[in-house]
Amino acid sequence: MSLQERAKAAAKDIEGKVEEAVGNITNDSGKQAEGKAKQAEAHIRNAAEDIKDKAKSVAEDVKEKAKDVRDAIK
């Protein structure tokens, strides 16, 4: 997990929430939409990090299983 990428996603989410709130207060549908888009981007960034984490975990599991098979063959 990249802590830096998670922090960027959190910042983007907060930025989006603020922008959406400003849009709600000013009745600016463009700002509302931009805020929601930034929040969606943050969720996508987090999902990408989740996928990377899972891929690393699977790779480590495969590596361990390969070692077990190698040791069993010896």
Walk me through the structure.
- By secondary structure, the protein is mostly helical.
- It has one domain (3-73).
- 93% of the residues lie in helices and 0% in strands.
- It has two helices and no strands.
- It is rod-shaped.
- It starts with a helix and ends with a helix.
- 9% of the residues are buried.
- The model has no long low-confidence stretch (mean pLDDT 94).
Q: SSE layout and pairings?
A:
Blueprint lengths: L2 H24 L2 H45 L1
Helix pairs in contact: 1-2
Q: Could you provide a short overview of the structure?
A:
The chain is mainly α and 74 residues long.
Characterize the main sheet.
Answer: none
- Helix-strand topology string: HH
- Number of helical segments with 4 or more residues: 2
* Domains, number: 1
Report the radius of gyration as a whole number of Å.
20 Å
Briefly note the structural class of the backbone: mainly alpha
Average per-residue pLDDT, rounded, comes to 94
Q: Percent of residues in helical segments?
A: over 70%
Q: What is the beta-strand fraction?
A: under 5%
- Poorly predicted regions: none
Distance between the termini: 35 Å
The shape, in one word, is: rod-shaped
Number of strands: 0
